[in-house]
Amino acid sequence: MANYLLAMATYAGLYALMALGLNVIWGLAGMINLGLAGFFAIGAYTSALLTVHLHWPIAAGCVAAPAVAAAAGAAVALITARLRGDYLAIVTLGFSEVIRLVASNEIALTGGTDGISNIPGPLRGVLDPTQFNLLSLTLVWVVVAAAAFLLARLSASPFGRVLRAIREDETVAAVAGKPVLRLKVQAFMIGAAALGLAGALYAHYNAYVAPDAFQPLITIYIVLALTAGGTGRMAGAVLGAVLVIALTEGTRFLAAALPFLGAVQVAALREGLIGLMLILVLMLRPEGVLRERPRIRAPEAG
After folding, report:
1. Mean per-residue pLDDT for 189-202?
2. Cβ-contact 232, 109 below 8 angstroms
3. pLDDT tens-digit series, residues 110-137
4. What phi and psi values does residue 116 have, to the nearest 5 degrees?
5. Cβ of 224: how many Cβ atoms within 10 Å?
6. Which domains does the chain have, with CATH numbers?
7. Between vectors from CA 220 to CA 216 and to CA 221, what angle results, nearest 5°?
8. What is the pTM of this model?
9. Which of 269, 272, 274, 215 is nearest to 244 (CA)?
10. Per-residue model confidence as pLDDT tens digits over 44-70
11. What is the DSSP letter of 29?
12. Are 47 and 65 in contact (CB under 8 A)?
C-alpha cells in the first residue's frame, strides 16, 4: 500500500508539471492545445533514447528532453499561427496522434509497440522499491515546486501581462505594438518544455515507455486538472492535478465497498462518479477552485 500511495503521489507531480505547462499556453496566452500527450511523448522518448542507446547520464537526458519538446512546440506554434479556437484544438490533437503513430511504427528507433525498456532511473537497483519510489517522489515534486515558482514569477512579469493581453484580445495587443506571434511562440515553447520534462521524468521513473502510454486521455485529464484547479493560476494547476489523481485513483476502492457489483459495473460507476465530481466542481466554482486574481486595482470610492 505504501508503494502504491508513493506512486500515485509521483504521478500527481507529473500531472502537475504538465498542467503548469498547459497553463502557460492556454491559461496565460489563450491558445487551446490538445496535443499535450504528444509533447509528453517527445520528452519521454528523447530521454529514453539518449540514456538507453547513447548511454547519456540521466540528468543530460532530462535536459535534452524539454529542449527537443520546446523546439517541437515552436514548430507547431508557427504552423498554427493563423488558427484559432476549435481549428487550433483539432490541429494540436492531430499532432499528438501523429507522434503516437510514429512511435508505434518506427520500430528501428522507438521499438514500435514493444516500446523501450530498461530505462535507467536514479539509484535504481541500489535502493529497494520503497526507497526508490520515495526518491522519485521527492525529485518530481522538487521539480514541480521549482517550475511553479519560476512560472508564477513569469506570470507576474511584463511578459506574463502581455500574454494575458493577447489572451483577451490579440488585435488590441498588436495595435499596442506587441510582437504577438513571437510571444505566442515563446509561450508555446515554455509550455512544451514543461511537458517534455514531465515525459522525461516519467520515463526514468517507469523504466519503460510505449505508445499506448500516450493516449489522448492524458490530455483530457490535464485539461480537467487545470480547469478544476483554476486557469491562469500556477497554484491552481498543481491543486487541480492532485484533485484529478485523487478522484481517479480514490474511486478504485469502490469494488471493495460494493462487492455485489461486477467488475464492469464498478468501472462504469467509477467513471460516472469521476465525471459527476468534476461537474460539481465546475458548477460550484466555474472559474476553478483557485480563481485568477485581477491584476488591476479597482478605483477607490471618492
Report:
1. 97
2. no
3. 999 999 999 999 999 889 999 999 999 9
4. -120, 125
5. 22
6. 2-284 (1.10.3470)
7. 115
8. 0.92
9. 274
10. 999 999 999 999 999 999 999 999 999
11. T
12. yes
